[in-house]
Specification:
single chain, 7-stranded mixed β-sheet, 3-stranded antiparallel β-sheet
C-alpha cells in the first residue's frame, strides 16, 4: 500500500490489525516550508506523525518514496537516509518523471541516479549494489554501514521491457502503464455482475497483448530534441484523469 501519510496516524492500527504489514509513504522533504511549497498543503506534521505511528504499531515493511527534483530537494538525500534509519524505513529515491503537465516537468529538473549515487558516496563512501532477483522497479544499494536504499531510475534508465506494474483507479479504470492515456474499463462489467471468469477474459488478454513502452518512448525523444511535458496543461483542464496523480488507484 502506498499513501501520502496524511491520515496514517489515525488509521495505522486498524490497517495493521486488518493484516497489512507493509506500507509506503510519500515524503519528498523533511523541511516544513519546502513541504508546503511542493504539496501546497500544511500537513507535514501529520505525515511525520503517521510514519511514527507505523513504527510504533509494528509494521515490518516501511518504505519512504522521495521524488528527487534538481534545485528543490536534491540537497536532502543524506538527511532522508538518516531519517529512514531513525524510523526503520527503507528510502527509495525516484527520478522526477514527466507523467502529466500539472507538474511542470522539465528535463533539467531531473536529478539522475548517477547524480544521487555520487552525492551519497561523497558522504558515506563506497556504495555497493544489492545483487538480488527482483521484479521491483527500484534498484537497491547498500551503504558501508549496511543501510539499504533504493533508486527508481525510470527517466534516465527506463525498465519498460521488464515492468510488471499496472494501476487500477478508484473509478474502475485499469491502466497498463503510467504513461497510458487510455485504460480498460472494469467498473462497467463489475457493476453488471460479471463473473470471475468473465473478468479474467478481459484482464488476461489485456495484459498479454500489452505493448506499452511509455518511459522508453519518452526517453527516445531526447535524441530528437522533442522531449517536453507529456500532457499540456490545457488538455488536463479538459480531462484531469490524464495526469497520473489525479487518477488515484
Amino acid at each position: 500500500m502506498t499513501t501520502n501519510g496524511v491520515l496514517l496516524a489515525e488509521q495505522a492500527r486498524a490497517l495493521y490489525d486488518a493484516g497489512l504489514h507493509r506500507i509506503t509513504v510519500s515524503l519528498d522533504t523533511l523541511k516544513l516550508e519546502r513541504f508546503r511549497m511542493l504539496t501546497r498543503r500544511d500537513t507535514h506534521a501529520r505525515v511525520l506523525a503517521g510514519i511514527e505511528a507505523v513504527r510504533q504499531v509494528g509494521f515490518t515493511g516501511l518504505k519512504l518514496d522521495t521524488v528527487v527534483m534538481r534545485g528543490d530537494n536534491d540537497d536532502e538525500l543524506v538527511d532522508l537516509i538518516e531519517y529512514g534509519k531513525q524510523v526503520g524505513a527503507e528510502v527509495r529515491f525516484i527520478e522526477y518523471m514527466d507523467v502529466g503537465g500539472a507538474t511542470s516537468w522539465t528535463l533539467d529538473k531531473v536529478y539522475s541516479r548517477a547524480a544521487m549515487l555520487a552525492r551519497l558516496s561523497q558522504c558515506y563512501g563506497p556504495i555497493e549494489p544489492v545483487v538480488e532477483e527482483s521484479w521491483a522497479p527500484a534498484e537497491r544499494f547498500r551503504l558501508p554501514d549496511g543501510t539499504v536504499f533504493g533508486i527508481i531510475a525510470s527517466t534516465t534508465a527506463p525498465f519498460c521491457s521488464t515492468c510488471d506494474r499496472s494501476r487500477l483507479t478508484a473509478d474502475g479504470m485499469w491502466y497498463l502503464c503510467l504513461y497510458a492515456r487510455q485504460g480498460i474499463d472494469l467498473r462497467q462489467p463489475l457493476r453488471a455482475g460479471a463473473s470471475g471468469e468473465e473478468l479474467a477474459s478481459i484482464i488476461i488478454p489485456g495484459w498479454q497483448t500489452r505493448r506499452d513502452r511509455g518511459a522508453e518512448e519518452r526517453k527516445a525523444l531526447e535524441t530528437h530534441g522533442r522531449r517536453s511535458t507529456l500532457i499540456p496543461l490545457d488538455h488536463l483542464r479538459k480531462d484531469p484523469h490524464l495526469e497520473m496523480h489525479t487518477r488515484g488507484g
